[in-house]
Amino acid sequence: MAKDKKFVKEITSMEEDFAQWYTDVVKKAELIDYTSVKGCMVIKPAGYAIWENIQHELDRRFKETGVENVYLPMFIPESLLQKEKDHVEGFAPEVAWVTYGGLEPLQERLCVRPTSETLFCDLYSKEIHSHRDLPKVYNQWCSVVRWEKTTRPFLRSREFLWQEGHTAHATAEEAEERTIQMLNLYADFCEEVLAIPVIKGKKTEKEKFAGAEATYTIESLMHDGKALQSGTSHNFGDGFAKAFGIQYTDKENKLQYVHQTSWGMTTRMIGALIMVHGDNSGLVLPPRIAPVQAVIIPIQQRKEGVLETAEKLEAQLKEAGIRVKTDATDKSPGFKFAEQEMRGIPVRIECGPKDIEAAQAVVVRRDTREKITVSLDELAVRVQEILDTMQREMLERARAHRDAHTYVATDYDSFKKTINEKPGFVKAMWCGCRECEDKVKEDVQATARCIPFEQENLSDKCVVCGKPAKKMVYWGRAY
Amino acid sequence: MAKDKKFVKEITSMEEDFAQWYTDVVKKAELIDYTSVKGCMVIKPAGYAIWENIQHELDRRFKETGVENVYLPMFIPESLLQKEKDHVEGFAPEVAWVTYGGLEPLQERLCVRPTSETLFCDLYSKEIHSHRDLPKVYNQWCSVVRWEKTTRPFLRSREFLWQEGHTAHATAEEAEERTIQMLNLYADFCEEVLAIPVIKGKKTEKEKFAGAEATYTIESLMHDGKALQSGTSHNFGDGFAKAFGIQYTDKENKLQYVHQTSWGMTTRMIGALIMVHGDNSGLVLPPRIAPVQAVIIPIQQRKEGVLETAEKLEAQLKEAGIRVKTDATDKSPGFKFAEQEMRGIPVRIECGPKDIEAAQAVVVRRDTREKITVSLDELAVRVQEILDTMQREMLERARAHRDAHTYVATDYDSFKKTINEKPGFVKAMWCGCRECEDKVKEDVQATARCIPFEQENLSDKCVVCGKPAKKMVYWGRAY
């Protein structure tokens, strides 16, 4: 068993050093590897399979709302990037520039897309003429590049994978409706599939997207009490439309500007899965997103009938729609258990000669480690029930953790003390001015995560300056 | 009907100008649009949906053979690209270079991947240590960039979408087996799904991939008699392994180099679909790849019961697994017919008041324009039969076209005359030397498309130089 212990031992405990624990899990669960390209990562099979499941589930939900997928170039000419003033100011400092094509210098620099608003606007300005051409509800799955100085696997890297939806509508109301619709879609996806509870709300002016009229966000809380922006949906109003001249003739034959939105979710959600659900044995994947939901581990597999039984059980579970594998390698059972735990496979099914004699198997839940003895006859049904229960309880547990780490502050001293000493969200009132946000940032390195849709009246005064309060805000330190 | 005619009239006929016909179809079927970025295209919803179906079908077939998907960075440091000599010589002249990250010049230039052999090798050199780590069978779906001087939608653009598989094996035999396995997979996919018949064979030394020991290819013939390389599978031997130091310890504890392969298929297959199956009314999509397989067009749709019937039929067909839409817009039926034809939707289902009275609908095949009256009771079953027949006949027709445009030449004069006057493949014997290939290229601008697996002995002499022949080769002009 020495080898098994070593396998687990190599992870730092999360209580000791959360950042190191995270890096250890990412590496040991074989989600990611570093590369020769500074700040860029390889997403390995175990990591990419999670992303494929995220894509599949999001894409299905998108298409139900009328989204059409497209692909736009990865390059943006410098002049195009500069068309919307706030947008270029927000992104220019962190883009990668292509200056040579083959052996020739380019006449105009091209940036590698950090996001594609400008290209979609360029397309829409050519495609949209009449109210009959509206709405346009396009999305693309691609990678984007932002030249970050410090990087962390999944959370912040120079290249990452995402989807970016870009829409154009006849009216401001329709654009706002689509913005909120997609925010709700993201929130439902996070809670139902990733078992990650989120706070829905609006970003402050300081925190909103470069070029947007309003940015909406879903914010989640990691196990260490830091916040993670998990998906954003932007209402652009007609700002980009005016900069790019995207106009249509309405039913009265008058020229109007379109109203636009954009919304995105990225591979950082894999980081969120790790930091919300993981433990000191490694990853814990919610069943609905897990590429492998159950692994069958034969015990004393050389004894007659053991591997044959494992094979039969695998076939039964597959037939029932469960994503299952059998680990029949020559590693010891203990080693296989440790591996299953490290990789976060939701349940393992142990089955040896004694179990077979008793026509049963032992199902072990990854999250609670509960051992459940199940009759082989009803294995598929029971495993599905256990997976469903686990999915539900993981969300409940994450919600309980978040609620237990959400505090209220009504004066600035206790606000600062809470931020400094109790990692989590702090709910507090705000006057609405930028200066108070800047002060909080400077004093305790926290930001306004969002102005939640569900407002509470905690006091009449801004927690920072004491002036009349306008909104309740979730504050916190964030990834 | 004036408007309907105009819609169709805007396409140049393929007999008049095939290149212009192709561009017209690409634009009018709304597959692609040009962008502000020279040589880069937008793949629009109708085009991207075809690519999604290609991806879905190929990915399923890959995974059945044990392929695992990953994602590697889009950037390659210049020093890494230079590690394999032939490879860098082949690609350096046509790569895009990133020289700035944000406001700072980079210490080392990064090229935007034209292909990812070097990155996969870099990864494998870190991941592979023991024979237990083999084989590695990775694939990625991504875009790549090649700085082409002249571009054409789908066929040749500065950025295109593809998949690139990269594998590492313990032995040369295993690598060769995987190379051929993937070539066969591509060939089956082309014939079964795209209804495009292919010639399987080996590339000559002159035409093989930069850095490969052997390149295998599937070659297809377009309607205008030009060849299209439709998928390639490369056996690298241990050349990259030696350049990148990818070694493993075998069962006898000896250090060995791995043997590698790579294989790819791209969005140019959408171009192939257009050029193999299209006609003067537009695109014709084989049912198995068509995003929409059937469109219901209600006739006199304002009359009572027409739209209700259309709705019911749509639900029935959907239930039967047919990808179906109803066009209930206020355009005229004639306009809708022309649109369905332009977009290549395999069948349209016409249904008006008289049809409903007779409990029937008229199904019109896109390829033959055959009109089939079908009882509403059995619509779903009959439409599926018609789609299956159409899929089969499209492949047969493409094969007959190719065979009718495949010629034999046994002397150089008739060889040149055939190439110049009869667009298609020319089968002819070859001595195996580079000089003869160069002479053919110079004299008639044709290339050795492949040395087919199915060899024939047409004569004893090389068609070019008259020296003893070694192989039969398919020659042709190519896209």
Describe the structure.
The structure is a homodimer of 479-residue chains. Chain A has 479 residues and is of the alpha+beta class. In chain A, 37% of the residues lie in helices and 27% in strands. The first copy, chain A, has an eleven-stranded mixed sheet with strand order 3-7-8-14-11-10-9-22-23-21-20, with helices on both faces. The longest helix of chain A is centred in the C-terminal third of the chain and has 26 residues, at 379-404. Chain A is globular. The two termini of chain A are 37 Å apart. Chains A and B meet through β2, α3, β3, β4 and β5 of A and β2, α3, β3, β4 and β5 of B.
Key terms:
eleven-stranded mixed sheet, disordered N terminus, 23 strands, 479 residues, alpha+beta, homodimer, five-stranded mixed sheet
List the helices and strands and how they pair.
Two copies of one chain form a homodimer.
Chain A: H1 2-9, H2 18-28, E1 32-34, E2 41-43, H3 45-64, E3 68-69, E4 75-77, H4 78-81, H5 85-91, E5 96-101, E6 104-112, H6 117-127, E7 136-145, E8 159-169, H7 172-192, E9 199-202, E10 214-221, E11 227-237, H8 239-244, E12 247-249, E13 255-257, E14 259-266, H9 268-277, E15 294-298, H10 306-319, E16 324-326, H11 333-343, E17 347-351, H12 353-357, E18 360-365, E19 371-375, H13 379-404, E20 406-408, H14 412-421, E21 425-430, H15 434-444, E22 447-452, E23 471-476
Parallel strand pairs in A: 3-7, 15-16, 15-17, 20-21
Antiparallel strand pairs in A: 1-2, 4-6, 5-6, 7-8, 8-14, 9-10, 9-22, 10-11, 11-14, 12-13, 17-18, 18-19, 21-23, 22-23
